[in-house]
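Lab channel / #folding
Pinned by the channel admin:
"Please post every new chain as: sequence first, then the structure tokens as a reply. Keep commentary short and put observations after the output so the thread stays searchable."

First post following the new format, from NK:
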Amino acid sequence: MRWDIHNHVVPESLIDALRSEFPVAVDGRVVEADRVRFTLTPEFTDPNAKLRRLADVGLEALAQFCTGEPQLRWMAHVPLQDLSAITDTIERAKAAGAVAIEVGTTMAGKPLDHSDFDPLWATASRLGLPVMLHPAYNAPHPGLADWYLQNAIGNPLETTVAAERLVCAGHPSRFPSLRIILLHGGGFVPWQIGRLRHARGVRPECQNIPGDPEKWLENFVFDTLVHDPEILEMLVKRVGPANLVMGTDAPFDMASAHPVRDLLSVVDEATARQIMEETPARLFGLNSAR
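Reply from TO:
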């Protein structure tokens, strides 16, 4: 079975839950919405409780969305703003059927290599769940304000910053069995990791980076979403089909229109099968490709 590992969904049940969270009238601690009155609880007033609840609803909605659909699997979102809930959320997501964790590239300006997020990496590693980094909460950059460059350049840049900070902070060496998925072909990581390796050899700021940064490419998995067959061919050669999976970004307008055709234009059928079927099956513990 072919797998698209970079695909977005918003279940109707999650939309309904979001709609129910926006009251239209408040009188003291009592809310009236759609002619129903109820008392405000921490889930309405405390950001951590609110986001934790939304994460729970999201887990439930995604699990339900994929129930009975053998061609669908889901990744869990984790409320990184609530550090006390990270481990429990990941454990419950694993028990509910999640095959991976998906997080943004930063959390309220705090990078993922911050020690506060150690429970994320430790729990995912312990449970054998890959962690996908999806660019989100991108840092503002004046040069990217026009022409949709915040996405066209900013998203690959955010991935690069997050991934190389993890390398510099030693996360691949601390969690050697953990696989981290980088989208949009891994941003600039496959092409510029050598520059970081060089910096480690000549700059005092980089002397404490554990090991050769290029060695840690093996801990990352890259998707095929680069929008250019020649670059895709280079990416296959650079990271190898065992570290490459098909991703489309559907149904957004930045999705690849012909991901399978594009892949088959630069690799043979056996290599394409490895990228689309065998590598994701191994990565997520899925049944053998068919």
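NK: The chain has a mean pLDDT of 88.
TO: also worth noting, The CA atoms of residues 156 and 187 lie 4 Å apart.
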